[in-house]
Design brief:
The protein is built from 14 helices and two strands, in the order αααααβαααβαααααα. With 320 residues, the protein is an all-alpha fold. It starts with a helix and ends in a 7-residue tail after the last helix.
Length: 320
């Protein structure tokens, strides 16, 4: 009898442990990435400069508790989430090649309006006022932020949205960033010829890219609007909707840093920044509209398949 009771107690304890781990699965994921960070720091399987990304992934994992969608069924969610992630990562992986082809088309086409001279004559349009304070540590930070901001600003909240089991947020972050913005911004690049501030003004490239000849001409194109700004601002607006205050503070600051870096490093003109802010705002609103329509269609037909309690879906801000 004692053996039977002991077995029951063991099973009960195991179930409670399993339920606890299921409820706080994100903690396990966070500690896993912390473990990988510590191991890699010692044996250096991954280049040490990438260790910061591992640590960032761990930090992000620990911030999801308040935003988790507990009403979603895990298996149906994964059926949709995994293919979506594969598509997104494929787009990002092939992005450089696609953009290079766009640049080739631009070089061959007749640009309608050349704004280089006009923009260089507008007072304060070169954002020289943001470089009044320019210590070495700030320059290093600005370079890091600019070089990572175009993709990382999206990947981190997208990863977090996946951990919160919110397909809606995953689609929201995806649409509001590169997907909609590339479609909106490309015509502007074929109409307006505008190059980076340092190139037009004949200053050294603060990013130290050692660009010469045709490479310099191609790389410094496409300034209006600033897509670094539009991507970062769109992510900033969406991050403000998250419940976790620490994540909002940290990632909101990062997104704003990306915008600041484009002026600090003499990449974009001030007018580019305002145009980028407008583009980011419009892309979020457009994504909201698309998701609202999709949400109504999806909820009516598939809520029983994807949610534990379909009645809660109607009033929930975290639909599916």
């Amino acid at each position: 009898m004692n053996v039977k009771n002991a077995n029951i107690a063991y099973v009960d304890k195991s179930l409670r442990m399993f339920n606890l781990m299921s409820k706080y699965y994100f903690v396990t994921i966070g500690f896993f990435f912390l473990f990988v960070f510590v191991v890699n720091y010692n044996i250096k399987l991954i280049p040490i400069e990438y260790s910061g990304y591992i640590l960032l992934t761990a930090f992000t994992s620990f911030t999801v508790l308040k935003d988790i969608n507990r009403n979603v069924k895990l298996k149906p969610f994964l059926v949709l989430a995994i293919p979506l992630l594969v598509v997104i990562l494929t787009i990002l992986a092939s992005g450089n090649g696609i953009w290079h082809n766009v640049l080739k088309l631009e070089m061959k086409s007749n640009i309608l309006v050349n704004l280089n001279e006009t923009f260089s004559k507008i007072p304060f349009n070169d954002a020289s006022f943001v470089r009044i304070f320019n210590p070495t540590w700030l320059t290093i930070y600005m370079k890091m932020v600019y070089n990572t901001g175009f993709v990382l600003a999206v990947l981190v909240p997208l990863f977090r949205a996946t951990l919160t089991l919110s397909l809606k947020k995953m689609v929201e972050y995806t649409l509001s960033s590169h997907v909609l913005q590339v479609l909106i911004i490309t015509p502007f690049y074929f109409i307006f010829h505008l190059q980076e501030v340092w190139f037009v003004n004949g200053h050294p490239d603060m990013l130290g890219r050692n660009l010469t000849g045709l490479a310099a001409i191609e790389t410094t194109l496409n300034c209006l609007p600033s897509m670094h700004t539009s991507i970062a601002f769109a992510m900033f607006l969406l991050v403000l909707r998250e419940k976790d205050k620490i994540f909002k503070l940290v990632w909101g600051f990062y997104c704003l840093s990306v915008i600041y870096s484009t002026m600090y490093l003499e990449i974009h003109w001030v007018i580019d920044i305002f145009a980028g802010l407008l583009l980011g705002y419009c892309s979020v609103k457009l994504a909201d509209y698309v998701i609202k329509k999709w949400d109504i269609f999806f909820t009516k037909r598939f809520s029983k398949i994807f949610t534990k309690n379909p009645q809660r879906v109607i009033s929930s801000e975290n639909r599916i």
